[in-house]
Amino acid sequence: MESNVLVVDDSAAIRKILQRVLRQTGMAIHTIHEAGDGQEAMGVLGAQKVDLVLSDINMPKMDGLQLLASIKASPEWRNIPVVMITTEGGETKVSEAVKLGAAGYVRKPFTADQIKEKLAGILEPALPL
Amino acid sequence: MNLNEIIVKSLTQSTLQVFSTMLGVEIQCGEASVKAGMPEANEGVISFIGLAGSWAGTGSVSCTPLLACRICAQMLMCEANAVNEEVLDTVAELTNMIIGSVKTELEQHLGPLGLSIPTVVYGRNFKTKSAGNAEWIVMHFRWDDEALIVKLCLEPKEQAAHVMFHTSSTDSCTLEV
Fold first, then answer.
1. Largest Cα–Cα distance of chain B, in whole Å?
2. How much is the average pLDDT of B34-48?
3. With pLDDT > 90 as the criterion, what percentage of chain B qualifies?
4. Which residue of A has its CA nearest to B78?
């Protein structure tokens, strides 16, 4: 089954890179939605079916940890896996994200292989043509 | 190893790693120097990001418009012929990743530090001045013939200022970083 992914980052450059990397992973992905901050992401979650969220932490308006907490507090969205992709490599932020229920954590700068490895247990591989 | 040496090592490793991982290029590392926080004339693209905690300061990445476009084209695998929003966003994200990695390294020595959202300035004949007295550690890098400068100033919080003043020939404004 193909999945819908939501990429949340205030950097349009990172959203563009993740779009490309996700398409190269060989995972069964149908649609990649984008949001520039946590608030915008909540809007997308309310309007679209999302199977995975990839989120930055350090963002304006609503940061990634607040978004993660809101997703995990919602009966409708709490089962959506959230993977944090961020420069925030400090133990405090990592522990907080894990405590809030993050499914994984990738530090920027990242390689396509690191993203693929992190998503391997979450998304299904695409069926061979 | 003193703090300046730790910062130089961290800025070097972080910059080389970001270029290698995100752009797939190996850039050349040049000399490191320490400069007083005097007002400095600038031209081109310069990005700032603030650090805050028990120590506070500012990280900065600057380059020519040509190099900013080249970085954008390589990182996003697209054409970039002029400094537009996409180019500025790419330089901001590059700064975020370089200084963010340095921040993570420095937290082992200085305790938790916060990172601001980056601010990018593009123009000619503008001056920048950090409102603190901290010295800047300046690292020079080269990608072929183009120069990239990565800088960081950091001081204990009691001495740090959190506002950076920018002035140009025509107007002036205050940017919080």
1. 45
2. 82
3. 69
4. A16
Q: Are B137 and B51 spatial neighbours (Cβ–Cβ below 8 Å)?
A: no
> Which chain A residues are Cβ-neighbours of B10 within 8 angstroms?
none
pLDDT value, residue A129: 58
Residue ranges and CATH numbers for the domains of chain B are 3-176 (3.40.1550.10)
Q: Which residues of A touch B51 (CB under 8 A)?
A: none
The pLDDT value recorded for residue A33 is 97
CATH 3.90.249.10, applies to A3-119: no
ipTM comes to 0.85
Question: Is the torsion defined by CA of B13, B34, B95, B99 positive or negative?
Answer: positive
Mean pLDDT of A13-26: 92
Q: In sequence order, which residues have a C-beta less than 8 Å from that of residue B144 and are 6 or more positions away?
A: none
CB contact at 8 A, A68 and A102: yes
Backbone region of residue B111 per phi and psi (left: phi > 0; alpha: psi in -120 to 50; beta: other values): left
Contacting residues for A120 by C-beta, under 8 A, at least 6 apart = none
Three-class DSSP category at A74: coil
- Name the amino acid, one letter, at B55: W
Over residues B133-158, the pLDDT tens digits come to 778 999 999 999 999 999 999 998 87
The domain limits of chain A are 3-119
> A90 and B112 in contact by Cβ < 8 A?
yes
